[in-house]
Amino acid sequence: MSKRTTGNTDRAEVLLASARPDRMDRDRTLPARFVRLLEKLGVAETCRGQRVVIKMHFGGGLGYSTIPPLFVKLLVDQVRKGRPRSVRVVDQGTRGASDRGYTRETLGAPLGTTAGPHGRDVRLLDTGWRRLGKVAIGRPVLEADVLINLAHVKGHGDAGFGGACKNLAMGCVPGATRQKIHALEGRIRWLRSRCTHCKRCLRACPTRANEFAKTGEYRIFWHHCRMCQHCVLACPTGALRLVHADFAGFQEGLARVTRLVLNAFDPGKVLHINVLTNITLFCDCWGMTTPALVPDIGIMAGRDIVAVDRAALDAIRVRDLIPGSLTPPYRLQKGRHLFEKLHGKDPYAQVRAMERLGLGTSRYRLVPVP
Fold first, then answer.
1. How far is residue 355's CA from residue 308's CA, in Å, rounded to a whole number?
2. What tens digit of pLDDT does each residue of 3-36 get?
3. Helices (H), ranges, the chain
4. Which of 148-157, 226-235, 245-254 has the highest mean pLDDT?
5. Cα(297)–Cα(301) distance, rounded to whole angstroms?
């Protein structure tokens, strides 16, 4: 397979389907514009005769602000216009997908998992970085001919934000590799003196990797822990803390795993789509929904992952924050970007890490789709 290279100083084209109609006309709404965006992007031609995998997040728990099934169906319809050999919509798991309307009947394509039903259908690949070493990436993704990276842009307590990069780096690997990537951030420490045993940390853990012993001591089963830090973020008293924190190392890890996924494909066979609707504090993996932070922006797409993620971040502005949208205890703090003001982490670090590794350019030209 050909690899991505740097050296092209031209601006990458990023298409934008705006969520804001310029008149009361169904043809000017986001779904209609999304179809025209997909046509301009060349989805049907790219997928002609190919095995296509669409990577998205199905959400979980009581979350209701994931990508609406209609948009996934519109994407699948465009893929099928190219008469592909096959098309599947995948995530780490399919449990609860139907609760949010994701079924074979509604999407027009079968659902699957990125690394098999038990997370063991993987290929070990070397990141070329001593701190991370080899990682497991799902074979069902790597063995496709075309990858469509369908991401839902949101804030993220660990990564600063989640977009196209995180959708691949964390979404195409099994639990053990996610833990390995998260471990680049540091370790979790429990402070007994601050703990009130409210058990919010237990309810926040997606893998039930923590418990309170009969003695009242907080315990973590590191075998099950993904280091997602949901427990840390949920603790109201600061009894759980991340120590030896290394945000830059975590971003580097995300970028390197993303590079491994992308290097399995011809550059012309990968499409990146960022959905900028229902942009909330946390990503869809939290299994809950809080108010949207800013008005819906639309959908961005292109063939350069760096440009697509950079353009998405640039469109999310502090001045557009919706009054009353912040969920306590979150409030605006120091920082330049809205996500940085909320999570204390520079979301552009992820973009810079990808650009350093030659995955694309942060220089882009935004092209609105009428």
1. 12
2. 454 444 589 999 999 999 999 999 999 999 999 9
3. 30-41, 43-47, 69-81, 104-107, 139-142, 164-169, 175-182, 200-204, 230-234, 247-262, 305-315, 338-343, 348-356
4. 148-157
5. 13
Spell out the CATH class of 187-243.
alpha beta
Q: Which residues contact 339 (CB under 8 A, 6 or more apart)?
A: 155, 156, 160, 161, 313, 316, 345, 347
Cβ atoms of 103 and 73 within 8 Å: the answer is: no
Residues 6+ apart with CB under 8 A from 334: 341, 344
Q: What is the mean pLDDT of the chain?
A: 93
For the question of whether the overall pTM of this predicted structure is more than 0.90, the answer is no
Phi, psi of 233 (to 5 degrees): -70, -30
Torsions phi, psi for 320 (to 5 deg): -95, 5
Q: Are 5 and 357 in contact (CB under 8 A)?
A: no
Domain boundaries defined on the chain? 12-181+247-368, 187-243
Query: Does the pLDDT of residue 224 top 70, yes or no?
Result: no
**pLDDT grade for 146, boundaries at 50, 70 and 90:** very high
DSSP output for 115-168: S-TTS--EEEEE-S-TTT-EEEEEHHHHT-SEEEEEEE-EEETTTEEESHHHHH
For residues 89 and 92, give the distance between their C-alpha atoms in angstroms, rounded to a whole number.
11
Of the CATH numbers 3.10.180.10, 3.40.50.10140, 3.40.50.11440, 3.40.50.700, which one belongs to the domain with range 12-181+247-368?
3.40.50.11440
**Residue among 205, 84, 193, 90 at smallest CA distance from 142:** 90
